[in-house]
Amino acid sequence: MNALFNFLDGVFGIQNIGLCIILFTIIIYLLMLPLTIKQQKFSKFSAKMNPELTAIRKKYENKKDEASMMAMNEETKAVYAKYGVSPTGSCVQLLIQMPILLALYQVIMRVPAYVSGVKEVFTELSSQILAAGGSDFMQELAKNGAMSAYVGKDFAQQNTIIDVLYRLQETGKATWTMLADQFPSMDALIESTHASISHLNDFILINIANSPMNMIKSGLSTGQYLMVFGAILVPVLAALTQWLNVAMMPQQTSNDPNDTMASTMKSMNIMMPLMSAWFCLSLPAGMGLYWIMGAVVRGIQQFLINKHLDKMDIDAIVKKNIEKNEKLREKKGLPPQKDVNLAKTNMRAYDSEKKKNHMTEEEKKAA
To answer: Are 42 and 92 in contact (CB under 8 A)?
Structure first.
């Protein structure tokens, strides 16, 4: 984030954390493109594999002995190997996202600690507050609910004061007024610092360090309805872009009422947009900006990857994977895998079933 801030400032003369987050998001998702392709491939092939996996589950439905369970696991693994995908293919990207989200949250909550250009905005004011003996007052100011984590910290440290000054954005203009009343000789400096940090953190209608929920409450109480509109837009766009991502993913079709994977996916398709909305409503708007921009980038990637996957000869890929799997088994001294030629038949059955599901009653009768 520091490098991106310096790049935008040095090359374009732009100082804005919101734009840094957008660039950061694009870079992260470009770096994760290989994993995205694997995830898309898994989703695409899952629909093709479903008939075989369902057949295996039915085959061992009433067999709970250890030998049967081991045989079922082996046959299931053989199907995944045949299509060249991993059962965890859709999870890796989500797992990698978690440390990125946690790190980004820390940066957004304490930008001056990580971005030197933002820290410089507060340096002079924090120095003068320390020189004026304002540590006790800053400690009292930190007792505000939004900054309770700083209560008890050493306010003789300039960095602590800078952190609290940065978090004053969450408490509204009134707190900055209290600061100016306490230190009237610094009135002009306080005003210019407030204006500078607002410029750095404001992105369109939102403040990236404040949560949409706080902005909605503050905007309604002060009559700043444009801010309320911008704050509402964050969770709405988060849910909408997440829903579009889900809609663009290749979906599994299954008529098996016992297919727990398909039913779980249906539930997740509903829950994910709702979770995204809540996530982006309660956390800093910068996190919401990352979430929305990530969904937009993923959507573009999904569109292009889907077009590429649609052109692939899946029968040829399956044949190649079968041959590769058989060579591995041969090296291990294992016999040829049973039922390896089911793939083509099952893919045709899947395609036929998919077409049938989209036929009218008259077309079905004619068929």
So the answer is: no
The reported pTM is 0.79
337 DSSP assignment = P
Provide the terminal-to-terminal Cα distance of the chain, rounded to the nearest Å. 60
- Classify the phi-psi angles of 204: left when phi > 0, otherwise alpha if psi is within -120 to 50, otherwise beta: left
Length of the chain: 367
Q: Give the tens place of pLDDT for each residue, 102-128.
A: 999 999 999 999 999 999 999 999 999
For the segment 80-108, what is each residue's pLDDT rounded down to a tens digit?
877 777 776 567 777 888 899 999 999 99
Report the SS3 class of residue 67: helix
Q: pLDDT, tens digit, for every residue of 304-326? A: 988 888 887 777 777 787 787 77
- Rounded CA separation 163/122 (Å): 9
Neighbours of 327 (CB within 10 A): 10
What does the angle CA 75 – CA 79 – CA 83 come to, to the nearest 5 degrees? 165
DSSP result, 141-208: HTTSGGGGGGTTS-TTSHHHHHHHHHHGGGG-HHHHHHHHHH-GGGHHHHHHHHHHHHHHHEETTEET
